[in-house]
Amino acid sequence: MKPAPFEYHAPATVEQALELLATHGYDAKILAGGQSLIPTMNFRLAQPAILIDMNNIPALRYIEPTPAGGVRIGAMTRYQTAERSPLIAERAPLVAEALPHIAHPQIRTRGTMGGAIAHADPAAELPAVCVALGARFKLRRGTQERWIAAEDFFVGLFTTLLEPDELLLEIELPPLPARSAWAFTEVARRHGDYALVGVAAGITLDDAGNCADVRLSFLSVGDRAVLAHNAIAALKGHPPTAETIAHAAAIAAADDIAPNADIHASVDYRRHLAKTLAQRALTQAAERASAG
Amino acid sequence: MAHHTITVTINGETEIVTVPSHMTLLEMLREELALTGTKNGCASGECGACTVMMNGAPVNSCLVLAVETDGAEIMTVEGLAHDHTLDPLQEAFVESGAVQCGFCTPGMLISSKSLLMRNPNPTDHDIREALVGNLCRCTGYVRIVDGVRQAAKLVASDTK
Ligand SMILES: Cc1cc2nc3c(=O)[nH]c(=O)nc-3n(C[C@H](O)[C@H](O)[C@H](O)COP(=O)(O)OP(=O)(O)OC[C@H]3O[C@@H](n4cnc5c(N)ncnc54)[C@H](O)[C@@H]3O)c2cc1C
Ligand code: FES
Ligand code: FES
């Protein structure tokens, strides 16, 4: 239960890290918080030849307001920092609500916001939250920068659009629309365990009290974070009543997700959880939107 | 095999250690520095037996590389007692019967210490949240929560 030997580099700048990646590409692995990578190395499920440690790049640790009213989060920002950030509490309450559900305090001390996105675990909270919020990610390879929408970034089980010699640098959360509110909920066997199913929901009301916009995403219901397009279309334009919400939640559970069975939960149980949790999260978001 | 020489403060003492890049902090503490209070339970972040404080916050030392601690401050269970006097947490653990086999205890103590440093007056809910990453197979947790609560009271009455 020890990692295999590897060559270790600790660049001090993004440019140095990118140069190392350009030279070593497929043989190298990025080390962020290490909270997913090191366990797999301890069990030798991963045996990278070269490790590029990003922990000495202070320029990737920031939480800043965007002029538009959103938030920019540097990839190496730790969960714990984000959890205690007043800016995130104010401008991204959905992120603040979801963060305490991630793992244990020890893991949140080290784990990074960028690491969670790059790792793309379908059971992770942050990818689903970013999909719900319509976040986008800044990637860089050599001197080439590109922005990718969260919904396009996750392409399968632990798989993203990141190239082997590309870095994730920033998560950008857009400003929240007026009269919008959000809610996050999940069911896990024990607090801190990966969720059996989790849901992020957002509702924006118009002047008549109808849903001008709806956001609904799931974790742990397939090979990646899922945006529930059918449920969103069903609720949009309608007032968020108990009936319309129940209807949308049923559509989400039936049509938007393709959950797998494992030792923790059957397909039917996951669909049941998806429906019940979607109903709760949408109801809570609607209540918060009409109250605020 | 690449080696690195790092400078790390452990329980207040500066140590200069040469470690292979693939050595974890847990291994460095136990094998290089003979600080065997910190336990290896799972090597995968699940059990918390290897919890130490790194720059004031709890981490699983099985999931941190030794090289990553260059320049850091580490506190292990050995750093709690001073001059033959137990930390109030250790005393309260003994008094409340929070220790049975003792395997989880170093991790429990360090997680509790981090909590009390941040929040000297925690609710039972705060205590349970702080210890959610520390498994105990013996006590059933109730007495551990009692111990942390009692330690908080001890410290509060001492500083009055
Ligand atoms: C016991 C346990 C329970 C957990 N429970 C949960 C949970 O409930 N929910 C949850 O979401 N997570 C959970 N995690 C995982 C944890 O959140 C990890 O911290 C996270 O998945 C990865 O972040 P990291 O910073 O630790 O990344 P690392 O482990 O360092 O890296 C993960 C992967 O991403 C790549 N990578 C990292 N950063 C970048 C970057 N900037 N650019 C390109 N590639 C990059 C790495 O090369 C690696 O392949 C748990 C982990 C453990 C050990
Ligand atoms: S040994 Fe580190 S968490 Fe179990
Ligand atoms: S006392 Fe035995 S594991 Fe906790």
Quick summary:
The complex is a heterodimer of chains A (292) and B (160). Chain A is an alpha+beta fold and 292 residues long. Helices cover 37% and strands 24% of the residues of chain A.
Q: What is this structure's SSE topology?
A:
The complex is a heterodimer of chains A (292) and B (160).
Chain A: E1 7-9, H1 14-24, E2 28-31, H2 37-42, E3 50-53, E4 63-65, E5 71-74, H3 79-83, H4 86-91, H5 93-98, H6 105-110, H7 113-119, H8 125-133, E6 136-141, E7 144-149, H9 150-153, E8 154-156, E9 159-160, E10 167-173, E11 180-187, E12 197-205, E13 211-219, E14 226-227, H10 229-235, H11 242-256, H12 267-291
Parallel strand pairs in A: 1-3, 2-3
Antiparallel strand pairs in A: 4-5, 5-10, 6-7, 6-10, 8-9, 11-12, 12-13, 13-14
Chain B: E1 3-10, E2 13-20, H1 25-32, E3 51-54, E4 57-60, E5 73-75, H2 88-96, H3 105-118, H4 124-130, H5 142-158
Parallel strand pairs in B: 1-5
Antiparallel strand pairs in B: 1-2, 3-4, 3-5
The structure holds flavin-adenine dinucleotide and FE2/S2 (inorganic) cluster (FES) (2 copies).
